[in-house]
């Protein structure tokens, strides 16, 4: 998969050069890396803000693979990504303990929100996350899950467990897709769903969904960057991984994160956390 990604990038570059009547220049190979990250960083538009600035600052080109956190960790495990930007802390800790990853650093956080139709047939509005999920299950109101082993899916499962619920039956529907697609399906079905706030805000104008539960410490959504090493495979580029990890926790990148979303939504979508401890966030 990794070789295929780089081949596609190379072919596209060659086509563009040919179209301009130029021949590819001889010289050292382009410095490029693969970032495996979550759909929330793509669907919110954050990657569009960060990656060009990273390339300008370092010269490294980035191919971003936006998948669920579980899939991103698996890409790292197979040596098919150089660096990971993910938001599933328990799974990340277990992954790092396997020994193929390098440093894991706190980058930023936002929060999860429980969304549903304004009519709120389950009566979840204003409740804490766990109690709201229990109400939805008791009412057997439609709940649309990502079902994709993402960080959002992991948090959803944690909330069901704490509510003492084993979800299933016709009311519980799994998309197996990313956050953006799951939000659209939940809106079409007048259902409930759990979302990271950034993706919801980026798409809310097209969604008949409203925030019903928020602000609970159990809804905190924490992102880390994880560098891969050649212990995961000979194709891993640890220099690129370190360059990205060091840049995203640097003051210029953290300032970009702090401002992202203000112009469009009147509020930032993420809170920069480099240099903080996760315990201080309440996670």
UniProtKB/TrEMBL annotation:
The keyword Signal applies. It holds the Pfam family PBP_like_2. It comes from Pseudonocardia humida. It comes from the Bacteria. Residues 25-251 form the PBP domain. Residues 1-25 form the signal peptide. The keyword Signal applies. Keywords: Signal. This is Substrate-binding domain-containing protein.
């Amino acid at each position: 998969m990794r070789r295929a990604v780089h081949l596609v990038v190379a072919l596209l570059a060659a086509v563009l050069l040919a179209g301009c009547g130029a021949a590819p220049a001889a010289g050292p190979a382009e410095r490029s890396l693969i970032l495996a990250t979550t759909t929330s960083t793509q669907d919110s538009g954050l990657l569009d803000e960060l990656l060009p600035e990273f390339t300008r600052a370092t010269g490294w080109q980035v191919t971003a693979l936006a998948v669920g956190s579980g899939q991103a960790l698996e890409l790292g495990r197979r040596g098919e990504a150089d660096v990971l930007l993910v938001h599933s802390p328990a799974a990340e800790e277990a992954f790092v303990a396997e020994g193929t990853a390098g440093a894991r650093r706190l980058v930023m956080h936002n929060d999860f929100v429980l969304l549903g139709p304004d009519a709120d047939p389950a009566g979840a509005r204003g409740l804490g996350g766990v109690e709201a999920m229990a109400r939805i299950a008791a009412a057997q109101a439609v709940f649309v899950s990502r079902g994709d082993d993402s960080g959002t899916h992991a948090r959803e499962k944690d909330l069901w467990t704490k509510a003492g619920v084993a979800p299933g039956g016709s009311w519980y529907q799994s998309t197996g897709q990313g956050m953006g697609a799951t939000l659209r399906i939940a809106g079409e079905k007048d259902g409930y769903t759990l979302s990271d706030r950034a993706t919801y805000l980026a798409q809310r104008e097209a969604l008949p969904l409203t925030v019903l539960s928020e602000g609970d410490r159990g809804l905190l959504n924490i992102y880390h960057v994880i560098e891969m090493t050649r212990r995961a495979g000979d194709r891993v580029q640890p220099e690129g991984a370190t360059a990205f990890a060091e840049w995203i926790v640097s003051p210029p990148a953290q300032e970009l994160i702090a401002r992202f979303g203000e112009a469009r939504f009147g509020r930032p979508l993420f809170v920069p956390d480099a240099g903080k401890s996760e315990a201080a966030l309440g996670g």
